[in-house]
């Protein structure tokens, strides 16, 4: 099956460095575009990303903030939201985020740029998530400052009509998983962590294939 893995624009394609090869070894045709460079060219961000997502006859797997990008994949057969936000057409990331988080990030911004994602949290937050200081250091090294404009740009007024499913990895996405269930989507839950693609890739691959069988 053809899979297009979309990492959150807030981090990097390093999200998939362990999962993508594993899925390819299981016989899937996998694309994992690097979205970070697209944010450095300035607005409009969503239309630039849309031109990069080659989703024809593919299942899109969107992690975290990439959930907002799924409607851009108009030719996709379906989508799996992996511990991800759900689309928010016509609204910005800030409008969709908890007000306290939005205020925190605005306070971090300097000259229109936010520090890399790992610096949004406490110093050891990513290490706790990954369970390994060295792994956290490698992941953080791939992250770059983020233009504040991406978080203030409104997502296009598009909806996603193809079948969808949800794979929850962490308690922070209880609301999104519950919303997916209310929409009638298949929902699977693993009690792991938000970056479990890096810590438990075999389990994630198994869970994804279980959901892929429902398409």
Q: Care to describe what's here?
A:
This protein is of the alpha/beta class. It has a single domain (2-212), classed as Rossmann fold, CATH 3.40.50. Helix content is 36%, strand content 14%. It contains 11 helices and 8 strands. It has helices spanning 19-25, 36-39, 45-52, 93-96, 99-108, 125-130, 133-141, 148-152, 174-182, 196-199, 201-212; strands at 2-6, 29-31, 59-63, 78-82, 113-114, 146-147, 164-168, 187-189. The longest helix has 12 residues, at 201-212. It is globular and about 45 Å long. It starts with a strand and ends with a helix. The model has no long low-confidence stretch (mean pLDDT 94).
List keywords for this structure.
215 residues; Rossmann fold; globular
**Overall mean pLDDT:** 94
Strand order of the largest sheet: 2-1-3-4-7-8
Oligomer: single chain
Return the domain count: 1
Q: Give the DSSP E fraction (strand runs of 2 or more residues).
A: 5-15%
In terms of structural class, how would the helical and strand content be classed? Answer: alpha/beta
**Helix fraction?**
25-40%
CATH architecture: 3-Layer(aba) Sandwich
Total count of strands: 8
CATH superfamily: Alpha/Beta hydrolase fold, catalytic domain
CATH topology: Rossmann fold
Overall, the morphology is globular
Report Rg: 16 Å
CATH class: Alpha Beta
